[in-house]
Amino acid sequence: MSGRPFQYLIAFSLLLICFIACWTVGDHVEVGCIEREREALLHFKQGGVDEYGMLSSWENGEDKREYCKWEGVQCNNQMDHVIMLDLYDQSFGATIFSREVFPLNSKIFPTCNPLISIKIGLKFNDFKGILPTHLRNLSNLQSLDLNSNHFEGSLPTQLGNLSKLQSLYLGFNGFKGSLPTQLGNLSNLQSLDLGYNNWNMTCENLDWLSGLPLLRQLNLSGVNLSKAIHWPQAINKMPSLTEFNLNGSIPYAFGNMTTLAYRDLSWNQLLGSMPDAFRTMTSLAYLNLSHNDLNGSILDAFGNMTTLASLDLTFNHLEGEIPKSLRDLSKYRFGGISSWGPSRLDLSSNRLSGELPKCWEQWKDLTVLNLANNNFSGKIRNSISLLHQLKTLHLQNNSLTGALPSSLKNCRDLHLIDLGKNKLLGKIPTWIGENLSDLIVVNLRSNEFSGKIPLSL
Questions:
Q1: Helix (H) or strand (E) holding 427
Q2: What b-and-e string marks burial along 13-25, b requiring 16 or more CB atoms within 10 Å of the CB?
Q3: Residues linked to residue 393 through DSSP beta bridges, in sequence order
């Protein structure tokens, strides 16, 4: 790979040129453009490393139009021109440099018009190097997904030229430096992911977000906003935003973001009790505050979030009992938004205590219940059998006592039961193996069970 950067830059440039230039205006031109698109794709493959042969279908055959059937290539149905390159998780690798040794503004294809729209997806591969500034000429690019590669360097300001871009995914790479304000020129953008770039990205001004009125998803996790001024106000002015991820402290102004439905504040260094700002966030469907240093009790305000479908407070230092307002939540609409996926409640790895809730009949939509690694005591209630959709049950490492309730056998969708490290006693019931046919994992170790292990297990 180290000996190919120049070769691959030319190949990558050729590919971009063909995406830019080849859209037919006549039969003769069409044949020429199709040939050049095919050759560009072959150069693209030859310039990289296909270690596992994932692109073995990319061959130089007699039928010049066969490239539309190649792995990851999608063509326009009428004209057989490439409109999408999707190499998701193909283990394809290459080194790319941004030096324009093969300039895209050359007139190598003067008779071809631009494509109507194109999409490039290279997620989960092994691309390295600097993001090419050549991308600025892809004026009809609609979607660019480079997530989970090894790109580095600063984001080129030329990204702001991609005025038709609707989705831009650059997360989980090695980008660094300040976010270019030119991103605010992408007025059609609906999804922007800049998260988790080795914590090396910064931003001093988010006012450019006002130029993205259609943005619905924004991921700034790992972006240092410590020097940004009035950024919560900038976020709050975005009319379409429903999903926002970040790392850092939570200002009180977050409470004004009443339209947000998805909020991920996990893996921060949030200290103290839960911010009062959450009291006004009644439209939340997903809230993740896991892996922080929050302490105190769980907010009663969660009982006001009648659209909440998933709550994750794991790995904090929360104390006390599960508040009644949270236990009554399902009475309204807990898990009622199917588009947010499986309903789940995760309060594990805290310091919560008291007896397990008696209100299982209110939580019938739960598929994941995780109360592990706390200080809960008492018996497992018979009413747990009302969780008919439950798939995973984590109650390990508490101080639960008594026998397993036989009613648990009615939770027939269970795939996993972990009750280890408690004080449960009695015989291990045979119904665990007989009634729970979907069960894959069961952990009963470090309890006080007696007798033989049932053959049904």
A1: strand 423-427
A2: bbbbbbbbbbbbe
A3: 369, 417
| β partners of residue 192 | 168, 218
Rounded distance between C-alpha atoms, residue 26 and residue 387, angstroms: 64
Encode burial over 327-337: b for 16+ CB neighbours within 10 A, e otherwise. bebbeeebbeb
Neighbouring CB atoms inside 10 A of 3's CB total 7
CA-CA distance, 432 to 428, in Å (whole number)? 8
Query: What rounded mean pLDDT belongs to the chain?
Result: 79
Spatial distance between the Cα atoms of 134 and 156, rounded to a whole number of angstroms: 10
- Provide the CA 290 distance to its chain's centre, in angstroms: 15
pLDDT attached to residue 214: 96
Per-residue tokens: 295: 């302490």
d(CA 298, CA 289): 12
**Cβ atoms of 206 and 227 closer than 8 Å:** no
Instruction: Tell me the residue length of the chain.
Output: 457
Q: What angle do CA 222, 227, 230 make, to 5 degrees?
A: 100
Q: Please give the Cα distance from 224 to 198 (Å, whole number).
A: 11
* Sign of the C-alpha dihedral computed for residues 25, 28, 31 and 35 taken in this order: negative
Is 155 in contact with 180 (CB distance < 8 Å)? yes
CB 16 within 8 Å of CB 43: no
Query: Hey, what are 36's tokens?
Result: 């050049």
Q: Which amino acid is at 272?
A: G
Helix (H), strand (E) at residue 44 = helix 27-46
Locate 434 and state its tokens. Answer: 């007989």
Is residue 71 pLDDT above 50, yes or no? Answer: yes
Which distant-in-sequence residues (6+ apart) come within 8 Å of 423 by Cβ?
399, 400, 401, 447, 448
Question: pLDDT tens digits for 154-204?
Answer: 999 999 999 999 999 999 999 999 999 999 999 999 999 998 898 789 888
Question: Are the C-beta atoms of 73 and 85 separated by less than 8 Å?
Answer: yes
Residue with tokens 């408690």: 422
